[in-house]
Specification:
transmembrane helix, 330 residues, 6-stranded parallel sheet, single chain, mainly beta, membrane, Leucine-rich repeat-containing N-terminal plant-type domain-containing protein, leucine-rich repeat
């Protein structure tokens, strides 16, 4: 009999939830979420946010299983309008904040976000945000990924962003940014990918960027000028470089490309010289040098003849396969 009672008691204890496995939502976080919901106009998109349900089970929310504190807020692709609620700054353990593809989300990026010092991912892309790229984002020292693309942000790029020690990817593309690429960007410690395309940036690419080793660089569709050689070289590991539709002007024949390069778009610039023979040693998936001032014979071999003919057109005097053969004068 005693053994039976002991067995039943043990089963009851096993069935009870243990604190270490608890995921009950923190009440302060829950209050903040209701404030965020109200600020966004109580959208249908957030109907699962109810007091009758543990907020760790709500749509768009992820909690730390041990503490019950909210670590992710992902709101995207919904019929939500208004501005980013300032209350998001009251979720101190947040690691990911994602407001994405909310075309009616307007206004500026609130300064309260600077309080989220545990943030690893800040994604505010494909919205209708305006105003500047805030310099206070440089206070988010744990940030790995910053994406503010596809908005209507204006003004210059704050040089303070370069003080983010863990940032590996920066995307400010598809905005209305002006001014130059900050010289301070050469101070980034971990940056691997930078996307600044489709803005109104001017001036030369800072030589300080040569101190970094990128995997992807996209400066396309700006008004940038000067040289790009600092981004390349035998010791670099750059995989993709998109530089089209700027005013870059340099001698391509003097450029040294790393073996890692697979995507290179230099089209619609003022680049002169000839195509270096070292291009034949690369595993190019895409090459576009059209609409420049290049001359001479296209190097034979490698993937050079597999490239679309259109990628060589509209230069001064490029010739040879896949273009027509060079004349004796070439």
């Amino acid at each position: 009999m005693k053994k039976t009672i002991f067995t039943i008691s043990l089963l009851i204890l096993i069935s009870l939830p243990t604190p270490s496995l608890s995921q009950h939502c923190n009440k302060n976080d829950e209050t903040t979420l209701f404030q965020i919901k109200k600020a966004l106009g109580n959208p249908y998109h957030l109907t699962s946010w109810k007091k009758t349900e543990d907020c760790c089970t709500w749509y768009s929310i992820k909690c730390n299983k041990a503490t019950g504190r909210i670590i992710e807020l992902n709101i995207f692709s919904g019929n939500i309008s208004g501005q980013i609620p300032t209350e998001v700054g009251n979720l101190p353990y947040l690691q990911t904040l994602d407001f994405h593809k909310l075309t009616n989300l307007t206004g500026q990026i609130p300064s309260s976000i600077s309080k989220l010092t545990n943030l690893n991912y800040l994604i505010l892309s494909w919205n209708d945000l305006s105003g500047p790229v805030p310099s206070f984002l440089s206070q988010l020292k744990n940030l790995n990924y910053l994406d503010l693309s596809f908005n209507k942000l204006t003004g210059s790029i704050p040089p303070q962003l370069a003080t983010l020690p863990k940032l590996t990817e920066l995307n400010l593309g598809r905005n209305k940014l002006t001014g130059v690429i900050p010289e301070s960007f050469g101070m980034f410690k971990a940056l691997q990918s930078i996307h600044l395309s489709h803005n109104q940036l001017t001036g030369n690419v800072p030589k300080s960027l040569g101190l970094l080793n990128f995997s992807t660089v996209d400066f396309s569709r700006n008004q940038l000028t000067g040289d790009l050689s600092m981004l390349f070289g035998k010791s670099k590991t750059i995989h993709s470089a998109y530089m089209s539709r700027n005013g870059f002007q340099f001698d391509l024949s003097k450029m040294v490309f790393p073996s890692s390069l697979e995507w290179l778009d230099l089209s619609h610039n003022k680049i002169y010289g000839s195509l270096p023979a070292t291009l034949t040693g690369l595993r190019l998936q895409n090459l576009d040098v059209s609409y420049n001032m290049l001359c001479g014979k296209i190097p034979q071999g490698g993937d050079m003849q597999k490239i679309e003919t259109s990628s060589y057109l509209h230069n001064r005097c490029l010739c040879g396969s896949p273009l027509p053969a060079c004349s004796k004068r070439s």
